[in-house]
Every structure is written in structure tokens, then in C-alpha cells.
Design goal:
The protein is mostly helical. The chain is built from 15 helices and four strands.
């Protein structure tokens, strides 16, 4: 695929490593002190985030009983990325990314601690929750581009994908443990205590970043003349198909398919499977189990292609649809694990392609655009899918959330196939490669 006279090398498969990653590769990365600290921070950040997300969602549901208002809480957490996200990329390329993370996490800690105290004292009101969600959303909007781009300063480009896979694995291990802890705390002592424990986890993450050795981070070139703004980053991204198409798919997946908190809340409610907070925690944990499997599978891949990203988008959307439209609880639980696998493989593939296709000097701004789509999409999608779930019920919400990313994947796959003159070949004699994407017989 190319855009106009684009260099074909821009769209070739991106080499991640010359061979499949081994245990030795992992051990080599863990010899880097800053990477060990980053992994520690990622784990406790994930633990805190998931515990807070579940507790806040459930607190809003307890205060209002309205799924649409749960979706609004999610929108307030992610919405600031739409406003500040692109500008945050400029900040990430001009200032210390480590310092940005330290400052924004401190703000997030103060917000969570305040809400925890209010909830524990039974003094929390809806506007308190929304205010803290909005403040945390602003902090996250500024933090995310800096944290994403920081990985490239810690490890060399040849090991970036392995590092990202390890980060994702650890992040979702936290996502596996966090919901379980939060569900137990909510059931026995209330949402406030869950938010309080999450705030303590954020403190550990802050400490890990404080212990970074700044001198061991690779230097980042300052933006060149004429390339210092968001407009340059947009033109840069649109001009590279390996950045443009993953971002298009991320936009659809984030807006509709990454509204799992709303979908799981609907499934756990009286109009769904009526499984309560315990069920909500179970669903999130099962998705995290699948995500860990997906992260491990991603770490074993040698390269990432545009067509594989489109395929994973379609698989993720289909898993969400199946989870909602098949009225069998066992199928629902299995589909949650599957969507966790495909979601993580898609996320790592798309982010890897964008990161590795971007010059380090502009990576903060490009990743900011990527995160505007990823997180800003969730802000809009949380409100939309929450409204759909409230008005039309769980089944329709799942169908919309999965059906639109599936449709986007089909459209992008058709575009790629037409431009590359590709077709699908089926060989029932080879069970390892039953379906393959190949050049058309008459293609030049």
C-alpha cells in the first residue's frame, strides 16, 4: 500500500528482531535498571488504575443507578485527552518525560486519596466523583504521551517491541489482580477503601519513577525548525501509511470496542446476568487473563503487518459481538477471554507499528495523536455505549461496540487488498496455514 509516490520501504514489514525473542532477550532487557523501575511502575499504575476504575464505576452506579451516568464518568476521565492530548505531545518532545510522569502521577494520587476519604466517610456525592475523574483525566492526558515515548529512551530500537510486550504483560497482570482485589474490597468494606488502596499503589509507582537514573536515558533531539507543532506531526502521520491506517483502526476500536467497563457493568446489572460487583470483577479479570496470553503471543512475533492489524481488529470486534448476542453464560465468559487476547495483540501491533515508523524526534507528538484517538475515543464511546446500554439493553450495546470495529476492519482490509492486489487462499491440506493472504495470480 502506498499513498501517492510514497517510498515502498515505508510500508514493508517492520523488522522487530532478527529472530524470535528468547528468555535471554528478556533477561538482557531486565539488566537495565531503568527498565526494571519502569516495569515496577507499570504494574502498580495498572493495579491502581483498574482498582480505581472499578470502584468509581460501581460508586456512580450506587449513587445513581444509571448506566448512562457511569458512561459519563468514563467520559470525564478520558475526555481531557481530546482537549489536551495533542498539545501534551509537544510538551513530551520538549521537556523531561520522566518529570512529566512524576508530576501528573502526583496529581492523580491526590485526587484518588481525596475521593477515597469522602467515600469512606459516606460523604461522596456525584459531583465529587466527576470532579476527581476530570482532574485525573487531565493528568492522564499529559502523562500518557510522555510515558509511551519514554520506552524508546530506555531500550534500543531493536528491542522496543519486546519491551512493549513485557510492559503490556505486566500491565495486564495488574489488570488481572486489580479487579479481584477491588471486587473483594467493594463487597466487604466499600468502594472508598478500594480507591484508597489504589492511591497507595500510585505512591509506589511514583517512588519507582523517582529512582530513575536520568543520565542513563538516551537523549531526545529537540524539534527542528518548522517541525515543532502539532500540525507537522499530523502531516507526518498522514504521509506514512504505516502510521495512518493503524490510527484509523485505533479510532474505531477505542470509540466503540474499548468501552468494556460500561459493557461489563451492563452485563453485571439486573438487565444482564445480574452478577453484581463480583461478576464485574470476574469479567474484567477474564479479559485480563486473555490480555496476558495476547501479550505473550505478541512477544513471539518477528514482524508486524498492516493486514495483521486489520485482521486482529476484526477478530476483536467479532468476539465482542459473540459475547453479547449469544445468551449463554459460558459462551459469554469464553468470549471475554478471547476478546482480551485479540484486544492486546491488536493494541501492541498497532502501537509497535506507529512507534517504529516514527522518527524519535517527533515520536512524542505522533504518540500524542495516537493517544488522542485511543483515549479520546473511549471518552466519546463511554457516553455513547452507556446510552445505548441504558436505552436498548446489554445485547444491543455489545452488538454496536463490536460490530462497528468489525466493519472498519473489513473496509480497511478491502482497501489494502485492492492496493496490494492480494487475495485469500484456502488450503485444507495444511492445518498450520489453512487461510493465507497471498498475491493474486495475475498480479504484477
Amino acid at each position: 500500500m502506498s499513498l501517492g509516490g510514497s517510498d515502498p520501504a515505508l510500508t514493508a514489514p517492520i523488522p522487530v528482531q532478527t529472530r524470535r525473542p528468547s528468555g535471554r532477550d528478556v533477561l538482557t532487557i531486565f539488566q537495565v535498571r531503568n527498565f526494571r523501575l519502569l516495569i515496577t511502575s507499570i504494574f502498580f499504575t495498572s493495579l491502581s488504575m483498574w482498582m480505581t476504575r472499578i470502584a468509581v464505576d460501581w460508586l456512580v452506579l450506587e449513587l445513581t443507578g444509571n448506566l448512562a451516568l457511569v458512561g459519563l464518568a468514563i467520559t470525564l476521565q478520558f475526555g481531557p485527552t481530546l482537549v489536551f492530548g495533542a498539545f501534551a505531545g509537544v510538551i513530551a518532545d520538549r521537556f523531561s518525560r520522566r518529570a512529566i510522569v512524576l508530576l501528573t502521577q502526583t496529581v492523580a494520587f491526590l485526587g484518588s486519596a481525596t475521593l477515597a476519604v469522602l467515600a469512606i466517610l459516606d460523604a461522596a456525592e456525584l459531583w465529587h466523583v466527576y470532579l476527581v475523574a476530570a482532574v485525573s483525566g487531565v493528568a492522564g492526558a499529559l502523562e500518557n504521551p510522555a510515558r509511551s515515548a519514554l520506552i524508546g529512551q530506555i531500550v534500543e530500537p531493536g528491542r522496543l517491541r519486546t519491551a512493549m510486550s513485557l510492559n503490556a504483560t505486566v500491565f495486564h497482570v495488574g489488570g488481572l489482580i486489580g479487579p479481584a482485589i477491588s471486587g473483594i474490597l467493594i463487597a466487604f468494606v466499600g468502594s472508598g477503601w478500594s480507591i484508597g488502596v489504589a492511591a497507595l499503589a500510585t505512591l509506589v509507582s511514583i517512588l519507582a519513577f523517582a529512582l530513575f537514573r536520568a543520565r542513563e536515558l538516551s537523549a531526545v533531539a529537540r524539534p527542528a525548525e518548522g517541525s515543532g507543532g502539532v500540525g507537522f506531526a499530523v502531516r507526518y502521520a498522514v504521509g506514512k501509511p504505516t502510521i495512518l491506517w493503524p490510527m484509523v483502526l485505533v479510532g474505531f476500536v477505542a470509540t466503540f470496542g474499548m468501552t468494556l467497563p460500561v459493557l461489563f457493568t451492563a452485563a453485571a446489572g439486573e438487565r444482564g446476568f445480574d452478577s453484581g460487583s463480583t461478576g464485574y470483577g470476574l469479567y474484567t479479570s477474564l479479559a485480563a487473563v486473555g490480555a496476558v496470553v495476547g501479550a505473550i503471543a505478541s512477544a513471539r512475533r518477528r514482524s508486524v503487518r498492516l493486514r495483521s492489524i486489520a485482521l486482529l481488529t476484526g477478530a476483536y470486534g467479532l468476539a465482542i459481538v459473540l459475547a453479547g448476542v449469544v445468551p449463554v453464560y459460558g459462551v459469554f465468559l469464553a468470549a471475554i477471554v478471547a476478546l482480551g487476547v485479540f484486544r492486546l495483540m491488536f493494541a501492541i501491533g498497532a502501537e509497535s507499528m506507529v512507534q517504529l515508523s516514527t522518527n524519535p524526534a517527533v515520536r512524542g507528538r505522533v504518540m500524542a495523536i495516537y493517544l488522542v484517538l485511543l483515549i479520546g475515543g473511549q471518552a466519546a464511546g463511554g457516553l455513547v455505549i452507556g446510552w445505548v446500554a441504558e436505552v436498548f439493553g446489554m445485547t444491543v450495546a455489545f452488538a454496536v461496540a463490536g460490530g462497528l470495529p468489525l466493519l472498519a476492519a473489513i473496509v480497511v482490509a478491502v482497501i489494502l487488498a485492492r492496493r496490494h492486489q492480494l487475495t485469500v487462499a484456502v488450503n485444507l491440506r495444511d492445518f498450520r496455514r489453512v487461510v493465507r493472504v497471498v498475491k493474486r495470480p495475475n498480479a504484477r
